[in-house]
Design goal:
single chain, 96 residues, alpha+beta, three-stranded antiparallel sheet, 42% helix, globular
């Protein structure tokens, strides 16, 4: 994933639990070269909701910015993931 230019991974530390509760999960989608959201999707119990209203997308963008600010940087996140993967015992890796 780190080599893909259109993918950025950031880890939200457990200490930032308040940021994690700003919203339920959602996906912001951008189809152009700029990362401006063109739609927001989230799941409910019975369906997926697709939002294209500018005001609602702006609200989701603010939540996303708050989550990004609370998360580790992409470099710190990659280091965290690598360290975590390295700490998994070989016996558990083989089980998967």
């Amino acid at each position: 994933m780190p080599q893909r230019q259109n993918v950025q991974v950031q880890v939200l530390p457990m200490s930032e639990w308040r940021a994690a509760h700003l919203s339920s999960h959602f996906v912001m989608v951008s189809f152009g070269p700029e990362p401006a959201p063109e739609a927001v999707a989230y799941d409910t119990t019975t369906s997926t909701v697709l939002v294209e209203d500018l005001a609602e997308m702006a609200a989701h963008a603010r939540v996303f910015e708050a989550l990004s600010a609370a998360a580790l940087t992409p470099d710190q996140s990659l280091a965290f993931v690598r360290k975590t993967l390295a700490s998994i015992p070989e016996s558990e890796k083989e089980a998967e």
